[in-house]
Write a structure and sequence with these properties.
Elements lengths: L6 H11 L7 E4 L9 H16 L3 E6 L9 H13 L8 E3 L4 H13 L3 E4 L3 H7 L17 H13 L8 E4 L14 E5 L13 E3 L1 H11 L4 E5 L6 H10 L8 E5 L2 E3 L6 H9 L14 H7 L3 H11 L6 E3 L1 H13 L4 E2 L1 E2 L2 E6 L5 E7 L10 E7 L1 E5 L20 E3 L4 E9 L5 E8 L17 E2 L1 E3 L4 E8 L19 E9 L1 H5 L5 E4 L3 E5 L10 E6 L4 H9 L23 H13 L4 H8 L2 H13 L3 H18 L7 H12 L5 H14 L3 H8 L7 H14 L1 H8 L6 H11 L6 H14 L1
Parallel strand pairs: 1-2, 2-3, 8-9, 10-11, 12-25, 14-20, 18-21, 23-27
Antiparallel strand pairs: 4-5, 5-6, 6-7, 13-24, 14-17, 15-16, 17-22, 18-19, 19-20, 23-24, 25-26, 26-27
Helix pairs in contact: 2-11, 7-8, 11-12, 15-16, 16-18, 17-18, 17-19, 18-19, 19-20, 22-24, 22-25, 24-25
The structure holds adenosine-5'-triphosphate and magnesium ion.
Length: about 750
């Protein structure tokens, strides 16, 4: 059980104590339209974890009410993920589609009660009639239909007498409600589409807001736990269940913050794009944040559960540092797995004064690990060491092997260089060495001083293996799209060598390869002929250092480390709610951005001021909710004003600079207080829209990627994004994306 009680568990305990429920029932309700990711793991841990902690039950329910995107293979992936994380849904997997008949009966009942009607406005009219946050909506004239007429139309909708969009079923609630979602929400729509489970039985499908609460009720769910973006849907949830006057008890909805992680994209739509476009090798690619990917890479369920526990359950959205997840896996494996030796990039060493062979009894674990076990480690005249463990002309602080400096071979002897052999190109191909016979590890009487111990394998006994090294899939902390992919996220080493013990162990074991990191036998591609190992994680957080050393000149605000807020953040007050509504309805901002701005007085003021200078709601909101917000968190006094941010937005809107470049300009503004225009001019950042300037870049990308061109020609049109991304990249982000899009499309027609 989690140590500190979160607000959800507090609520559950209250409800048990007051006798509201006797048994706790939760549910995990994914839509089977993609593989589950680490965000789903969080939801699984919450829902199944609460059921376990209070001796209740958690249903695994497929929320399969959208016929066009769902598939059985995703259902299997979801089951796998839950099982692998160690949870149990007991016997039955539930499907919302199994409730279609019941949900339809409830709809009929609402109509009979005069609480729902068939509307025949089209989509656009429905939107228009809904009104704005300042003005109430108008009710459609069709709301006056008699109960009989509504019943007849609903039945005929079900029978398939109408086309998609001709009619909808709506709840009759309040067209002037402050919560716009309550302005007669849609309950059913016509959709002539084949469903992966119900086939062509239905041509009307219930909307999420109608199906979800009823599915919960039908299953006897007590606590319906979802993410924050459904906060405003809660009123509909309550309305439907109350309006139907159902026999109690009924479920209640509670919201928590969804998990976001830097260097990662999490939405299934974006993951699907990566998979379909072959940017990764399938849903279980070890670089993806999918459960299948982590599993294949070698993460343990314990480490993921631990991570979900650590980040806690909060009521405010936050960004978690991926290093925290990496810490959890390292922490889990450190004490569990045997340490062995693997040479990734071999350099041959011949020990001239050593004859024969021997087996060294080498412990699998260091002294401070409370675990025992050892293996026989063969030693012989020819060994491999890591190429970069030798340097011919080393700097002063180099502690490994060099012509002047002996080194210890871990578990074995001390060797010294006698001769360095090079090929015709000057590349070092072999070291001739000597060893000190009385220097064996544990019984060393040689008196030779060494500064470090390196790993090695006996050439004759070692097994050639393939090792796959993974870097982060994205090279920026808040990736937006394909252009942010890290081109070096996968390295395949075909010439690595492991000591024999690694091979004779059972599959499904993990190792620490000494000094390299943690590794896992690839569960799919590993064969006796070609063993394949995946790097799970390095021994320490090397990324942080790398970023620091390569990016020093422009200190970039790092993704905020999680200041995770435990417990409840107040719901929006009236003023914030009003702002939020204006933002989403009048200014058409998305809910997440609107939420950020509305909840922060300083930000919303800044936004207002910027808007009064330049009226471009969306562009401004994006800059202010992201860049300005981050800046405000870090300093008490901004170096720029709303007016300057408005100027920056104007340059974006007029196509002078791209969104990407705008970020660069912004950072410069934040650091120097310089005017945006001046920065753009001084640095030559003006967006390139001239086709004549862009064409050579495109030609170059096409010429450099013949394989992808062939794949594209063979029908893999998803690669289109790849080409565009490469061109944007090669322009340093300055190319105008929409012009590039058109030009690439044109070019690909003719190659
Ligand atoms: P995505 O946006 O990634 O496609 P989703 O919310 O559409 O995710 P669903 O399959 O509908 O995915 O979600 C199943 C459950 O998992 C829901 O209860 C949802 O709230 C939860 N969930 C999804 N993403 C996250 C996340 N990032 N953090 C926490 N919970 C999540
Ligand atoms: Mg969804």
């Amino acid at each position: 059980m989690s140590e500190s009680k979160d607000f959800l568990r507090t609520k559950v305990e209250e409800d048990l104590a007051s006798g509201k429920y006797k048994n706790i029932v939760t549910r995990f309700p994914p839509e089977p339209n993609g593989f589950p990711h680490i965000g789903h793991a969080k939801s699984i841990c919450i829902n199944f974890g609460i059921a376990r902690d209070y001796k209740g039950h958690c249903n695994l329910r497929m929320d399969d009410t959208n016929p066009t995107t769902e598939d059985m293979k995703y259902v299997e992936a979801l089951k796998d993920a839950v099982k692998w994380l160690g949870f149990d849904w007991k016997d039955t997997v539930y499907f919302a589609s199994d409730y279609f008949p019941k949900i339809y009966d409830y709809a009929v009942q609402l109509v009979k009660m005069g609480k729902a009607y068939v509307d025949s406005l089209n989509e656009e009219e429905i939107r228009e009639y809904r009104g704005t946050i300042k003005e109430p909506g108008r009710r459609s004239k069709y709301a006056e239909r008699s109960i009989e007429e509504n019943l007849d139309l609903l039945e005929r909708m079900k029978k398939g007498e109408f086309k998609d969009g001709e009619h909808v079923l709506r709840a009759k609630i309040d067209m002037a409600a402050a919560n716009m979602k309550m302005r007669d929400p849609l309950l059913y729509r016509i959709r002539h589409a084949h469903h992966f489970r119900t086939g062509d039985t239905w041509c009307i499908y219930p909307m999420y807001d109608f199906a979800h609460c009823l599915s919960d009720y039908i299953e006897g769910v007590t606590h319906s736990i979802c993410t924050l973006e459904f906060e405003n849907n809660r009123d509909i949830y309550d309305w439907v269940l109350d309006a139907l006057e159902l026999t109690p008890p009924r479920p209640y909805q509670h919201e928590f913050a969804r998990l976001g992680m830097n260097y990662t994209v999490m939405s299934k739509r974006k993951l699907l794009e990566l998979v379909n476009g072959n940017y990764v090798n399938g849903w279980d690619d070890p670089r993806l944040p999918t459960i299948a990917g982590y599993k294949r890479r070698g993460y343990t369920p314990e480490s993921i559960i631990n991570f979900c526990d650590q980040i806690g359950i909060a009521k405010a959205n936050s960004m978690v540092d991926v290093a925290q997840l990496e810490f959890c896996i390292r922490d889990d494996l450190n004490k569990k797995v045997p340490r062995v030796m693997c040479v990734l990039d071999p350099l041959k060493v011949t020990i001239e004064n050593y004859e024969g062979e021997e087996e060294i009894d080498a412990s699998y674990y260091p002294h401070d690990v409370p675990k025992e076990g050892s293996r026989k480690l063969p030693f012989s005249k020819e060994i491999y060491i890591e190429r970069d463990d030798f340097m011919e002309n080393p700097p002063a602080d180099y502690f490994r092997l060099s012509p002047e400096q002996p080194v210890r071979l871990k578990h074995a002897y001390i060797i010294s260089v006698k001769e360095v052999i090079k090929d015709a190109h000057g590349k070092i191909v072999e070291i001739k060495a000597t060893y000190a016979p009385n220097s064996k590890s544990g019984e060393d009487t040689s008196g030779i001083k060494t500064k470090s111990a390196i790993h090695w394998v006996s050439a004759k006994h070692a097994k050639n293996v393939e090792v796959r090294l993974y870097e982060r899939l994205y090279k920026v902390d808040a990736p937006e799209g394909l252009e942010d992919l890290n081109p070096d996220s996968l390295h395949i080493l075909k010439n690595a060598y492991v000591e024999p013990a690694v091979i004779s162990e059972k599959p499904d074991v993990r190792f620490q390869f000494e000094r390299q990191g943690y590794f896992y036998a690839d569960p799919i591609d590993y064969t006796d002929v070609k063993p394949v190992f995946n790097k799970i994680v390095g021994l320490k957080d090397s990324w942080a250092k790398k970023v620091e050393s390569t990016e020093k000149p422009t200190p970039k605000p790092q993704a905020q480390k999680v200041a995770h807020v435990e417990g409840e953040v107040a719901p929006m007050n009236e003023e914030e709610q009003a702002l939020f509504n204006t933002y989403t309805t009048e200014l058409k901002l998305n809910a997440e951005i609107a939420n950020t701005l509305a909840r922060d007085v300083e930000l919303s003021r800044f936004y207002n001021e910027a808007l009064s200078v330049f009226k471009s709601p969306i562009t401004l909101a994006n800059i202010i909710a992201n860049e300005v917000a981050r800046e405000l968190k870090q300093t008490s006094e901004l170096t720029f004003s709303a007016k300057e941010v408005a100027e920056l937005a104007k340059m974006i809107d007029e196509g002078v600079i791209s969104n990407k470049i705008a970020k660069q300009v912004f950072e410069e503004m934040a650091q120097t207080g310089e005017q945006p225009k001046a920065i753009v001019e001084a640095k030559g950042l003006v967006q390139i829209s001239d086709p004549e300037k862009l064409k050579p870049l495109i030609d170059d990308v096409i010429a450099k990627n013949p394989d992808n061109v062939a794949k594209y020609k063979a029908g893999n049109t998803n690669l289109f994004g790849f080409f565009v991304g490469q061109v944007l990249k090669s322009s340093g982000g300055k190319a105008n994306p929409s012009v590039v899009n058109d030009l690439v499309a044109e070019k690909l027609k003719h190659v």
